[in-house]
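Researcher: Let's try something more involved. This one mixes different molecule types, so please make sure each is placed in the same coordinate frame as the others.
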Amino acid sequence: MSNKPEKFIDENGLRLDGRRVDEMRPMTMEIGVLSRADGSCYLEWGKNKVLAGVFGPRELHPRRMQRANVALIRYRYNMAAFSVEDRARPGPNRRSTEISKVSSEAFTPVIMTELYPSAVIDVLAEVLQADAGTRTAAINAATIALAEAGIPMKSLIAACAIGKVDGQLVVDLNKDEDNYGEADLPIAFTQDGDITLLQMDGNLTQDELKEAIGMAQKACEQIFELQREVLLNRFGKPDEIEQLAEETEPEPEVEFDEETTDEEVASELQEDEEEAPSEEDIPEEENDDDVDEELGGEKDEQ
Amino acid sequence: MSNEIMTRLAKDYVYNLMLKGEREDGRSFDEIRDITLETNVIEKAEGSAKIHLGATQVLVGIKLQIGTPFPDSPDKGVIITSLELNPIASPSFEAGPPREKAIEMARVVDRGIRESGAIDLNKLCITEGEQVWIVFIDIHVLNDEGNIVDASSLAAIAALMTAKIPLEREGRGDDMMMPVREMPVGVTLVDIGGEMMVDPVRNEEDICETKLTVVSNQDGSICAMQKSGEGVLSVEQILLAVDIACKKAAEIRENYLLNI
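Model: All components are placed in one shared frame. Result:
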C-alpha cells in the first residue's frame, strides 16, 4: 500500500507522474483483437489495461428481459482478480454492478436500439489491470468495439475523470490521486456535448464543478480524436478512398463508353466491392464520385 | 415492469401536464413534497429515523458492531450501507437479494455520507488495525411513491445524528453520541423536456428517463452526484440542477435536521 504523498503538484505545476494538470495519460487503442466477438477493442490508458468485446444484436434470454420496442444494452464491467494490488474476489460485486448499470445508460442514448426490438447487445468490459479510471477506460474501449461490431450509433462516447488534488482540478486521475484526492468526477460525453454518464464523490464547489465539466469536455474531445483515428485506420480514411477513386476512375470511363456486357459489369462490381461493399448497383460513371463522397462523408461524421 | 401498471392514458396526462409546467399534485417544479421525519423510532437500533416524503416511506436503522478495519485504513471505522426494495413497498418489487437498482441507490446514499465526512471515522477506532466500530446503515423501503434516494439520504443522516455508540453494552464505559460533523442532503431532479424538476413522484419517475442526484454539504459544496437513467443531460441542465439542489438541500437541512 502506498502512502499519501505530501504534495501532488510540484512547484513547476507538474503532477507526481510528470503530467500537467490538464494532461491525460497516454492512451492507445487496438481495434478488432478478438476473433469471436462482433467487435472488440484493447485499450491502454496509463497503466490501465482494458479489453472490450461486443456481441450482438442477438436474441435475449431470459425472454422476460426482452423489450418489445427496443434492444437492451447489457453492459458488464468486470475486474480480473489479478488486476489490482490486493487480489479482487472474482465475479460481480456492488461496485461493478453499479458501474455496469451507469455504463449501460451511458450508451443507451446513442445506440439506435429501436432497430433491434427484443434483442440484446452485449457489451463486455474486462479490466485486466487497474490504475484508476477503469470505468472511463472501459467506456472508451466499448465505443470502439460497438463501432467495429457495426452497431448503429448516433455518436461516439468518450469518458474521462476529473479530480481534485491539493485543491487543484486535474484531468485523468492516477491511482494515488484517486486514493488520496479530494474529489473524483467521471463524466462521459457524446460528440454533441451532451452528458451520458456523471458520477461524483469527494468535495467540489459549484464553480469547481463547472470548471471540471469544461476540463472533462476538452479531454473527451482529445479522446474522440483518438477514437476517430483508430476507426479510420481500420475502415479507411476519406482521402485514401478519394485517391483510390481517382486511380480507378479512367478505367470505368473507358468501359462505360462502350457497351458493357454483363460479365464486365460483374467484374466491375467485384472491383467496386473492395472499396464499397454496401453498394449493390453498378454506378453510372457520374455516380462513381457520389459513392465515394458518401463514404467519405460517413467517415467524417464518425 | 411498473410501466405496465401505469396505463398509457395516465402517463400521457402526467406528461402533458409537465410540458405545461404543472404537476399532478399541484407542486411547482422546484417544490419538494412535505416531509415528516421522526427519529429514535426503533429502540433496539442504535439510531433510527422514519421519513415520509409525501407518500414515500422509508425507515433507516443504524446498528453498530465491533469488527476489524480495512487494511488500507487501520485507524478508521467502517460504514456499510444497504438498501432493500422490499416487496411490501411496491407490487413491482420482488423478494431476493438487491439488484442493480437497489445497489445503485444504496451506493449513492453511502457516497453522500462517506464523502461528506459526515462521520468522523477516526473516532470509531478502538485499537488501531485490530478493532473498530462498524456502522451498518440499513435502509428499509416501506412504500415507494417515488424518490427513494432523497428520502433515504435524509433519513440516514437523521438516524446517524441520533445514534449512540453502545460502549456500555461492550463494557467500555458510557455510551457516546455518534461523531457526526456534517449534514449531507441529497436532492434528486428529473429531466422533463429539458427542464429540471425536483422530487419526482413515482409516475413522474416512470415518464422521465433521466435523473440527477446531487448531495451537498452545509457550506454549499457538493459531495456526491449520480446521473441515472437512459437519457442525456446537457452541461447547462447539470449546472442548473446542482444550483437548485444545493438551495433545496439548505432548506431541508434548516427545517428538518438542525433541530435534531
